[in-house]
Amino acid sequence: MNTQTPFDLAAVEAIIAQRKATPGALLPILHDIQGVVGYIPPSIVPAIAEGLNISRAEVHGVITYYHFFRQHPVGEHVVQICRAEACQARGCEALADHAKELLGCDFHGTTDDNKFTLQTVYCLGQCASGPAIQIDDDLYARVSKEKFNSLIQAKRGVQ
Ligand code: FES
To answer: What span, in angstroms and rounded, lies between the C-alpha atoms of 125 and 132?
Structure first.
């Protein structure tokens, strides 16, 4: 996977400069960087650590602790499939296998056309209505294989 994708370094440095004096600034900084760049470039970790006067290990620890934060570039759309307990009881693993086959990539992978990145998530707050998925900012409940197909087709612009 390419971790050398160019990103707007000036924008990232501006985020750090803008927020570094705020108590508890690390999480907001990481959120903002991911919002601008799409992921947290590993090369920016030293600048975050220096800006907040904490160790690189601390920054890295927070990035890896939260599944939300990505360390690699992602495709145009991020597809997250809930694989927590309640969704498992409602068939999310079969849906996950179907998603991998349809998209042609594994979890944490991106499709060849760079359209979709497939990710696992643990609970989307739709436990009674699983399997649940999220595509970008949109939540979907009771997702069958057929519903998944049509959601992906819609994102591809195929109706
Ligand atoms: S377990 Fe899947 S939404 Fe909660």
So the answer is: 9
